[in-house]
Design brief:
The chain has 3 helices and 2 strands. The protein has 86 residues and is of the alpha+beta class. The chain has one domain (14-84). A two-stranded antiparallel ribbon has the order 1-2. The longest helix is centred in the first third of the chain and has 21 residues, at 14-34. The radius of gyration is 14 Å and the shape is elongated.
């Protein structure tokens, strides 16, 4: 299942990035619960805007294997903020 969206506004700090990732993980968890599904692996992919050619480009992803298959927000979000900081 994919929950992919643009942030809608410029993310200027690591804290804002963590909050945005948590928000999308929460939306994905809600969709999992609505469809009576659960996840065992989560991946976060981030990249800079393609519409601002003056900014340096950046793209990265992090995959986190969960200890247990789940659809609970806190367990899905877990340590996803740690790989983003690398």
């Amino acid at each position: 299942m994919t929950c992919s969206r643009s942030f809608g506004e410029l993310i200027k700090s690591l804290e804002e990035m963590k909050e945005a990732v948590a928000m999308y993980m929460t939306k994905a968890a809600e969709r999992l619960r609505n469809e009576r599904l659960a996840a065992s692996i989560v991946t976060a992919f981030i990249e800079t805007s393609q519409f601002n050619p003056e900014e340096d480009r950046y793209a990265n992803s992090a995959t986190h294997e969960l200890r247990y298959t789940t659809n609970i927000n806190e367990l899905l979000i877990g340590d996803m903020d740690k790989p983003i900081t690398c």
